[in-house]
Here is the input.
Amino acid sequence: HLVIFDCDGVLVDSELLACGVQARAVTAYGLPLSAEDVLTRFLGMSAKDMRTALEGDLGRPLPDDHESRCGAELFDLFRRELKPVAGIADVVRAVGAAGHARCVASSSSPERIALALDVVGVHDLFRPNVFSSSMVARGKPAPDLFLHAAETMGFAPSRCTVVEDSVAGVTAARSAGMRAVGFLGGVHCAPRHGEILALVGADIVCANA
Here is the structure.
């Protein structure tokens, strides 16, 4: 079987850092949002889709350099503050020890994924099998990214299990015909988040690694 891991909020505790960066930027543009607002609305969504939604709310295009400036701030935070999700590296190793294939499939850019995995020391557990939503036409909640990862790795969807922390990710996994594990190990997960993931189709919900 193939186990597909999301990155942000599953392998690395990055969601609160990333949401804070976005919230500060769009608030400066005149659209007041808190990190919690960004987390609630955009968890698991690709940067492209988030930009489209924010521009709709703002009523005008975001600055051309929005992603590059937010990326620079976030990458600096990653290098100084990013931590792995507690226990997840042992889970990844156990998947390999059991004879299953593994990969990463994330809504983030290839550069952000690579930095995050490098900073927390798990990149070598996956490389070169790391997939970004930039590789497909539609990001999560569409199934495209997971289907692309499975096809590249040589597995039918029915032989894939996806580990996800977001509604968009669980929805994408179920749409792809894959088993979905709702994972609550990230510090960003609210008390009822597991119930929400179950409602959108998670086969099982895990409170921690």
Remarks:
- The two ends are 19 Å apart (CA to CA).
- The beta strands are 2-5, 101-106, 130-132, 160-164, 179-183, 204-206.
- The chain has a mean pLDDT of 95.
